[in-house]
Amino acid sequence: MKQVVILLFFCLVQTESYAQNEKITTATIDSLYVKALNNRFDLTLSSGYISLEPTAESKRIKNKQVSNRYKFPSSEELKIRALQEKKTIGLIRLGHKIISNDTIDINLTNVGYTAEQIKHSNGIVVSNEIFAISCGGTKGYQPSMRFVYDKIKNDWILIYNSSTETEN
């Protein structure tokens, strides 16, 4: 009985140490955001530039090696631009889903942003901001990109890119 308890103890310790070694860090997620943005050929080849929604994720990768096709406006800059242009501005929202220790989905979602000012009769001006998120379709959850960790190469490999997939 004592041997079984000792064996179980060592198995648990081994499993726990493996799980700690495979912890996914914010730096890892940020590097995958950069890879995902730089691998979206449909976005990088389009005319003009693409704005990213001002979130904690986009602020973290702002100064990393992201294609110069992407702009990182602040919330205030975005609001001023929307008010001046008086139209909906297209943004990309960054998101991720950790599937397992060696699989991470990066999601780049299209978001429409509109800002308007409403002037009340008492002179108060109120700003109204509207975020519209595009429909994901009827195929269920489909990530924009899926990365898998290759232990031999010691690197994250892109195995699925929705921008290069053809419709059936």
Task: Summarize the structure in words.
- This protein is α/β, with parallel strands linked by helices and 168 residues long.
- The protein has one domain (24-161).
- 32% of the residues lie in helices and 33% in strands.
- It is built from five helices and seven strands.
- The chain has helices at 2-21, 26-38, 41-44, 56-61, 75-85, and strands at 50-52, 70-71, 89-100, 103-119, 125-133, 145-150, 155-161.
- Strands 1, 2, 3, 4, 5, 6 and 7 form a seven-stranded mixed β-sheet that branches.
- The model is unreliable at 4-21 (pLDDT under 50).
The helix/strand series, from N terminus to C terminus, equals: HHHEHEHEEEEE
Count the helices. How many? Answer: 5
Rg over C-alpha atoms, rounded to the nearest angstrom: 22 Å
Helix content: 25-40%
Q: What is the distance, rounded to the nearest whole angstrom, between the alpha carbons of the first and last residues?
A: 59 Å
Report the major sheet. 7 strands, mixed
- The structure class reads alpha/beta
What's the number of extended β-strand segments? 7
Unreliable spans: 4-21
Strand content: 25-35%
Total discrete domains: 1
Q: Report mean pLDDT, rounded to a whole number.
A: 81
| Overall geometry | elongated
Describe the structure using short key phrases:
alpha/beta; 168 residues; 7 strands; single chain
What is this entry, summarized?
This protein has 168 residues and is α/β, with parallel strands linked by helices. It has one domain. It has helices at residues 2-21, 26-38, 41-44, 56-61, 75-85; strands at residues 50-52, 70-71, 89-100, 103-119, 125-133, 145-150, 155-161.
